[in-house]
TrEMBL record:
Residues that span the membrane, as ranges: 12-30, 42-59, 65-90, 97-114, 120-139, 151-172
Domain Oxidoreductase molybdopterin-binding: 229-373
Superkingdom as given in the UniProt entry: Archaea
InterPro entries per record: Ig_E-set, MoCF_OxRdtse_dimer, OxRdtase_Mopterin-bd_dom, OxRdtase_Mopterin-bd_sf
Record-annotated Moybdenum cofactor oxidoreductase dimerisation domain positions: 393-473
Tagged with keyword Transmembrane: yes
Upper classification of the organism: Archaea, Methanobacteriati, Methanobacteriota, Stenosarchaea group, Halobacteria
Keywords in alphabetical order: Membrane, Transmembrane, Transmembrane helix
Pfam families, A to Z: Mo-co_dimer, Oxidored_molyb
Native source organism of the sequence: Halosolutus amylolyticus
Name of the protein in question: Molybdopterin-dependent oxidoreductase
Region (Disordered), start-end ranges: 468-491
Amino acid sequence: MHTSPSRSDVVFAILAGITGVASSFAFTGYTRRFVVAPIDALVVRATPGAIVAWMIQNVGEEAHLLHVALSFAIAIGLLAGAALIGLLTARWLDRPIVGVGFAGVLAWGTTAALTTDPLVAVAAAVPVAAFSGIGIGSRTADRFDPSRRQVLVSGAGVLAFVGLSAVFGRLVSEPDPGYGTNVERSDAVEQLLRQADEYALDVASDDLPGLVSSIDEFYNVDIAEFDPRVPADDWSMTVTGTVENDVTVTFAELTDMPIEHRYVTLRCVGEDLNGRKMDTAVWTGTPIEPILDEADPDGACGCAMLRAEDGYFVQFPIDALEDAFLAWEMNGQPLPRSHGHPVRVLVPGHWGETNVKWLDEIELLDEEMDGYWEQRGWHGTGPVNTVAKLWDHVRLDDGRLEVAGHAYAGTRGIDRVEVSTDGGDTWADAELSQPLPGDDVWRQWRYVFEQEGKHEVVVRAIDGTGARQPEDRSKAFPSGATGWVSKTIAP
Ligand SMILES: Nc1nc2c(c(=O)[nH]1)N[C@H]1C(S)=C(S)[C@@H](COP(=O)(O)O)O[C@H]1N2
Ligand SMILES: [Mo]
């Protein structure tokens, strides 16, 4: 009796793999318990930095779809492998039931090992076992000849199982921590949100964020496709390394410390010059300095590595960390999972990557070390570049044109925004929103002009130290985009 896989074995094995993944998805949704999630985390971790850097520069935003697709393929392949081994075992021993059982156990074990969730593993394993059973049944005559009825009945059975998975998965899943909780906002936060509304310019464009971005429109940058899920009660953070005292802080202890509400703008070093990965929220938290003082750092480099639940790590100077704060609320709501629930760091004026989400450790160092992005070629742990974005232009009722956007220079602040409508020959001051309190927050600008034919509109900001945004253009990689944003506007 031959035991090499036939074409129908392979077909059934692949169907088993796809259905296993589909059923586990139906059970968990697109969450960390989905069988593809841990595989994706492994793929991301295993991809060499040079490849990641190349992808960021040459593929850009869509690069993450490649590792997600690869992870789906691996998940399907693993479950298909389990089914195939079952099919071959059944034939080899001439015991169909042993083959089916073997396929199921292998699929269950693999999924359970990956997801550490025995129920998700059942959702993935049952269709795998079922398809190897169908495969074995259809081949007893040693040729691929299932009856039409057989195929329909088994197909319907598998679909029904995926449906059941979905229903049962909803029943046993816990809600995402921090999401859609809709807590009543404190008066302090309400007042800051109102102030942001009042200070915002009255722009005609309705495509422009206000001075505070809503939680849903706030940009998102994650190294992992599947965000960690950390209930506040399970959270704690340690301060370790070259310190006099190791310190551990729980969520209850943290939120018992003196509370502050701050407007803070974040901007990703990886965004295009006129990109949209720049947003502002009102954050609630507590200053980090007292916690550091308690630990009493004495390392030689004056630097610290911050580490997070998703395997992310970033190193920067203690000086910068001392002005930072630990936030657990965003716009008056518990930090959403995608923004680091339950606790993230906010470092004034530094690139987005220093603002560690799902923080769980601050390790004081003796020697400088590269962080996650620095290992991949970026230089994004320092202060942000100055930028004035030209995010929208709108024709007003009186026929004139309005151009508008946001400008940000970290802790240097924005002093002025200048606009040219003739490609940079002549410049005029834009109208600016009143500065919001705080030392790390953007401003809105707006400029209205009489359109005569085609215009090349250019904008540039002058920061609070009087320095003008440099004109020289560079790409985002490795230290943030530079240059003046310009847009050609034709009638
Ligand atoms: N743990 C963790 N923290 C992280 C990241 C991450 O992938 N994991 N991304 C960083 C980057 S590159 C940026 S720009 C900001 C984005 O924060 P946001 O997603 O809340 O906008 O978070 C930073 N903190
Ligand atoms: Mo970033």
